[in-house]
Amino acid sequence: MSVVFKNILAFFLTALVSLGTYAQDNEAVTFEMKLSKEKLGLNERLRVDFTMNKDGDNFVPPNFEGFRVLMGPSQSISSSWINGVRSYSKTYSYTLAPTARGAFTIQQASIVIEGKTYKSVPKKVEVTAAVDKPSDQMTVDDVADESLHLVAEVSKASPYLNEALSVVYKLYVAPSISVSNYQPLDNPKYNNFWSQDIPVRRLSAENGTYKGKPYRYVVLKRVVLYPQKSGKLEIEPLSLDVTVDVPTNKRDFFGGRIYSQTNKTVSAGRRTINVKALPEQGKPVNFSGAVGNFDFSVTTNKTALNASESLQAIVEVSGKGNLKLFQLPEPNLPSSLEVYDPEFNEDVRTTLSGSQGKVSNHYTIVPSFKGKYPVPSISFSYFDPNTESYKTINSDEIVINVKEGPLNAAASNATTNSSNKQVVTTGDQFNFIKLNPNLTAIGSNYFFGSTCFYLWLLLPLLLIPAAIAFSKKREAIAGDVVGNRIRRANKLARKYLSKARKELGQKEAFYVALEKALHNYLKAKLKIETSEFSKEKIATLLSEKNVDEETIESFISLLKNCEMARYSPFSNVQMQQDYDKASEVISLLDKQL
């Protein structure tokens, strides 16, 4: 009897499960939008959930017009069995912040479930003026979002072509929170601009205001830009991942406030610069692109000298503007003066107001003949954005007096031809040509039997001992396994670090080249693409190759320095130390791998 009862019970349980599954499979599909509130203040947050009772694909959210997405979409799934009936729910959630007061409509979202497209019903939301909201109702992310702002301050929104403008990136932090760390996520590339970074030597917090409220701010990055193209140009945003400590209403055992930590991504946003083209009206023919306010001069270190002596002529432009972005005018010198290629000198410093200093070409001039040679006046033109007009400066004419030296034959002939005097030849004008060269004949067998003949004959015998010594030397070098390994490692280090060595003194270029050299070394040595690996993955990989911990730590430390150098001041001494350390680490790795 008990066996029959068990069979009946199993039958009914199977039937119940089948009915539950059938009910689940035939349950009507639902897809709906739920709002946390239909009326909120401008300083409040709105949570929007899109919930479905069956799994779907190709979810398309609305554009949330009138709101800014703070978080989302976050996805949650709930599945359970109750009395043999399966319950399933999947939700896409968004946290929104209103951008203005008024009545807004959250438009419909769509999703594909079992091959059919389902759409949610639009819902209206009313945004009122800001309300007095207790701080304990705000989440940590809400507080951080309202208290942290990255701003790009641009000095000029409408500069002329090749006129300097500065961009200063400031991180504003409300007094109620604190920032413990930040990492750059995206660096602007300044396309169509000539750029020069101004290093931030020390990060120091200063008091300021943001939208009328007191804030503390830190200057993270400063750059001077010279637009190289007219029209509307975009400055890409700088984005940071910031670790924020937000105070809560909870207190510890000693009464101290407990802080909650969260990570926020802040961006300075894109900035559009309207670059004005230089006017065509009044543009000088010799204009070479100089924009700013300049002085121009042409000087020589001496004006009187003898033939075959040298003098220096200096063409110099000084002032404030795009000193590195135009060509200096060239002097037009007489053909009787031998002129060498100029040596370019630059003494320019860059501040937030632009570049200032001087650039010059130093010409070495050597006269060949006696006489007086005028150096004509040279003109230099530039555009002054302050007066919005072109200006031209002319140098003074310089006369070079060559007191002693041979006469210029061309000048003498020109002088003779211009006079009316008759030229009488004496018949001895070719006496300088020697008619009796006093040459002696060379015997046909002169080489044979000479000293050179015997030296060439004995040379192979003399080279045999040298070849034997050279061969023994090569065998000794080949037998020195440790020495050869060290030499190969040092040669390999110089190969990969050659680019970084050329950039010593230029912080950003040096550390970019150094990081690339380290990755290229591992790529070539281990046949891997290290750019796809994190520092932890690289450390694990090297550890698997039996590289000692000290060498791995040195390698990872160099990679960290390359990242930190983009936003931290590094001295020339530090760069030299990192270069030496990289050379040593590559050598050690090559001996261990």
TrEMBL record:
Spans through the membrane: 446-470
Residues making up the signal peptide according to the UniProt record: 1-23
Name this protein carries in UniProt: BatD family protein
Keywords: Membrane, Signal, Transmembrane, Transmembrane helix
Lineage of origin: Bacteria, Pseudomonadati, Bacteroidota, Flavobacteriia, Flavobacteriales
Superkingdom to which the source organism belongs: Bacteria
Record bears the keyword Transmembrane helix: yes
Species this chain originates from: Euzebyella saccharophila
InterPro entries for this protein: BatD
